[in-house]
Write a structure and sequence with these properties.
alpha/beta, four-stranded parallel β-sheet, about 40% helix, globular, Rossmann fold
Length: about 425
């Protein structure tokens, strides 16, 4: 994306050999203008026929138009709900707030949308082993899709602060899991070294075919809004794959005439893992990696590989970046959970980010906002229980739902329920 050097799609390469920059999948936009339309994608809604029953491959022409249908590795994924949330909108201070829940994908996170693209490319290349470094969600997705495709999956974890729900998924799906005494950023370096030395195909978001799949989150969201563009898209930022994919999707949709304007993009990071935010405060001059610490393990990344693409997305959409505390994240998560929707901690950055940007006067109270929830509530069940038990270090449960203990008699139960009823009133 920096120097314009081109490579064939069947070459295994992750960075440009000329300038070292990130690689982009480029589409023939002139051809697509003649072949895609809102009507085409609307006609495919609700079909039972593969591959268009997938919320990724419904938009095949915009994802990977030339791939044979029988080579696509799909669960299927996507088709996630877009929830209108008036009570959360009131809390955040906006007229309309929708939450796009990517936790409803097969393995419980948005990563499935990217993994169907990545594993499809792996199958086309004929590779037999795929690998990733992971804070949890990528590992679960890679393990599931690799198993479905009959390809060996390999996952590098850090040896602490991995949510058990995510670790359990990778083990259950049969991936080779290796815990390493290093953080995510070092593990990603190791994956790249292993790939170069042992012939393993990398499926972290440095892989451009993964980001093509993740574009479908944005395309599907706008289709669910009847092709009406919201004022804002708000998304958590970790390795910045979603942010990058969203910018590319919106840019392409506008170029193809499928939308008439671009929404603004807001990327929300945890304060303890906020290298993009720090760069934004300096005018997006450069990235200074940092040691990441946050309860939101899915975005606990201090050296995001997709920094350059995220900056491009911010420029395209006149976007902003904000940072929020772990306290704010967990309180916002409790409110989302209380709606019966539920999410993992990182997802709650979207909601509290909206509220913070409204208070700063950046998002207007009359704006229509879409927040992205990236993962399922059960991805980090320990965080849920510990929050509501007030057992998290340096975090106070402002919206607790405590577990009650009772003797086995009606009188004891009545006392609990009557006290609970008084609180709810």
């Amino acid at each position: 994306m920096n120097c314009g050097q081109q490579y064939p799609v069947d070459q295994i390469i992750y960075n440009c050999a000329t300038c070292g920059g990130l690689l982009d999948v480029q589409h023939d936009m002139d051809y697509l203008r003649k072949s895609v339309s809102r009507q085409l994608f609307d006609q495919r809604l609700g079909t039972l026929e593969a591959p268009y029953n997938s919320g990724v491959w419904r938009y095949k022409e915009l994802i990977y138009p030339d791939v044979p249908d029988d080579c696509i590795v799909s669960r299927p994924e996507g088709n996630t709900n877009l929830y209108r949330t008036p009570r959360l909108a009131e809390w955040a201070g906006v007229a309309q707030l929708y939450l796009k829940h990517e936790g409803e994908n097969p393995t419980g996170s948005f990563k499935d949308r990217g993994m169907t693209g990545g594993l499809t490319q792996a199958r086309l290349l004929g590779v037999r082993r795929v690998a990733c470094a992971s804070t949890g969600n990528t590992s679960a997705s890679l393990a599931a899709y690799a198993a479905w495709a009959g390809i060996e999956g390999i996952v590098f974890f850090q040896n602490q602060q991995i949510a058990l729900g995510k670790l359990a998924q990778a083990i259950a799906y049969g991936a080779t899991g290796i815990q390493i005494n290093a953080d995510f950023d070092r593990n990603l370096e190791l994956v790249r070294e292993v790939a170069d030395n042992l012939g393993v195909y990398v499926l972290n978001s440095v892989n451009p075919f993964r980001l093509e799949g993740q574009k479908s989150i944005m395309i599907e969201t706008i289709q669910q809004l009847r092709w009406q563009v919201p004022d804002w898209i708000v998304v958590p930022g970790g390795n910045l794959g979603n942010s990058s994919a969203f910018g590319k999707a919106l840019h392409e949709l506008k170029a193809l005439g499928l939308i008439d304007r671009l929404p603004r993009l807001a990327i929300i990071q945890a304060e303890g893992a906020s290298p993009l935010y720090q760069s934004y405060q300096r005018g997006l001059d450069h990235l200074d990696p940092m040691h990441a610490e946050t309860i939101a393990t899915a975005i606990k990344i201090g050296n995001p590989v997709n920094y350059a693409k995220a900056v491009r997305a911010l420029h395209w959409t006149d976007g902003v970046v904000e940072a929020v505390t772990d306290q704010e994240i967990m309180d916002a998560k409790a409110l989302i959970d209380r709606q019966g929707i539920g999410c993992e901690p990182a997802s709650a950055c979207s909601l509290v980010g909206v509220q913070k940007l409204v208070r700063m006067g950046i998002i207007k109270p009359t704006d229509t906002v879409v927040g992205v929830l990236t993962g399922h509530v059960l991805k980090d069940a320990d965080a849920v229980i510990n929050y509501h038990s007030n057992a998290l270090d340096h975090i106070h449960a402002n919206y607790p739902n405590q577990l009650h203990q009772s003797e086995a008699n009606v009188e004891a139960l009545r006392a609990i329920l009557e006290s609970r009823e008084a609180i709810l009133q």
